[in-house]
Amino acid sequence: MTTTGTLKSSSSELDLDRPNIEDYLPTGSSIQQEPHGKLRLHDLLDISPTLSEAAGAIVDDSFTRCFKSNPPEPWNWNVYLFPLWCCGVVFRYLILFPARILVLTIGWIIFLSSFIPVHLLLKGQDKLRRNIERSLVEMMCSFFVASWTGVVKYHGPRPSRRPKQVFVANHTSMIDFIILEQMTAFAVIMQKHPGWVGLLQSTILESVGCIWFNRTEAKDREIVARKLREHVQGADNNPLLIFPEGTCVNNHYTVMFKKGAFELGCTVCPVAIKYNKIFVDAFWNSRKQSFTKHLLQLMTSWAVVCDVWYLEPQNLKPGETPIEFAERVRDIISHRAGLKKVPWDGYLKYSRPSPKHRERKQQNFAESMLRRLEEK
What SS3 class is residue 10? Predict the structure, then answer.
């Protein structure tokens, strides 16, 4: 008797923990008035917004986690460490920062005094002009890295210029391009930016064959796809670099790779980039911070520490689709850099589904749930 009583008590406790679907229905819903009747479509439509909002909150949390900066744990929390932290702030802002500004200024003076004459006076000698401009761009990127006291360790063979190959890398910030460019002058595929960055894109960086696009222009996709195919065929063109995530991710995760780089019919060379956040978080949240402020943040830190791995080239396997190829390369990069894969499209960062689209999805969900209940 005692055992039976205990079992009944446990069963009732378990029943209390189970969610009751009626609790989530609006007051006055027919399912509450007819508890022994069959569920009807409008009953499920009543509850589907609630369920979809709950699921959407979970999805949003998982998705937005990829684009959030994780502030470092504070260490200046007691009377002994706080004075040291204050001394560090004074040193970084009053000594390191002016010295880095000076380094960057000297770099720009050397670069512009060399680049402008070469670009204007050697127009008839394209091959020589391209080689000099390529070296100058690499030099300027080295000055940028020096202005952050960049400590970058490169692993693997240095990229070479070959036809029918494309390099793909995970994307954390626009400085990814600068870090890779100081080693090899890549032609990068990049979103068109406003301000002084856009000026550099339309003048200096076009000299190394970079291709720009605008996310809001549907026609740009066709133009970019055509330019990509033309670029990879040229033996003398700079190596092509693509960030297939299409947006900056916080270097803890990788979002889905776009398939464009994987359907060109050429060899794909993965590049894994991993930042050490011991001194500064290199993630650039472009929706909250301009690139100028991002650079100032880097220049007022102690150093930017980074590892770059040039990984084994990959080719499309027989029977493999471009999407499967993209996922395989993403696996390789994520494993090497220690990043977590998530099944989200990075473009959702810029555009969310419309209310009509969500309403249509809710109705489809309710209809499928009704069919399942009727089958039971």
Answer: helix
